[in-house]
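Much of our argument rests on the idea that a fold can be written as discrete symbols. Part of our work consisted of pairing the sequence of a single chain with a tokenised description of its backbone. The amino acid sequence and the backbone structure tokens for this protein are reproduced below.
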Amino acid sequence: MSIGIESPHEMPAADCGDSASPVVVPIDPNALDVLWSDFRSALSELTVFGRLADPSRLSIGRTALFYPAIGLLIGIAVSLLDWVVRAFVAQEITSVLLVGALALLSAGRQLDGFATTADGLIGFRGREWAIATIRDRRLGSSGAAAIAFLLILKVRGLDLLSDPMRAVGVLLPPMIGRAALVCLAYGSRAAGSAAEAAPFDPAIGLRELGGASIFVAVVTLALGGALGLLVLIVSGLVTLVLRFYLDRRLGGVTPQSLDAGAEILETVALIVFALAS
């Protein structure tokens, strides 16, 4: 009695209609190239790395999706610096160095926008005057006083940060500030535009706003827990107030006021972490 063994080559092919084969969706390499290009553009626009950009013109658009990620990278770099420097010098000196590193990594663009915006809004003399002053990059006395106050707040906030929340308090505020920039720009009018309701940047859509918001919420809640939730609530409320204020005072936003908003929200998040740590 012989037993016949069927060769694998002779086995009948499976009926495609009876099998539930998984459908493999190919990844479009062009889409990945576009995302990588957007990421590099965001890196150039928000940091000292990459091409030099005109700080008076912020071309956000699709790159807004990666703004919080760039802020997180800045936070990581500053957190590493904090971890290294604190082993050798006092915390007070470390705080000053960290504030300097934040300004250096962002090429001072957010600080510049904060100073010029303060020049236009402090001692308000009308919308047209304010917009013209904000767009003038020369630093006035109001801007100098405002930027000094902001830097003192940052230094003192970093002084108050203590373990175990210090690492998170240094890491997350730059990300929250860059996300606020996206939220302020989405759907806002362009201040000083000839058209009354001209959008600041119509390329910023729900994809950019939703992606940036979800990224920030997930990272902040994962690392900050209940305190992270408090920071998100306070930051969201401040962003809404600031958006309303800019719309009433300027009739919309300018690139400089968006940078000012990023600085304000970064500082607010830092102060909340500092007071609660």
Observations:
- The radius of gyration is 24 Å.
- The CA atoms of residues 89 and 95 lie 10 Å apart.
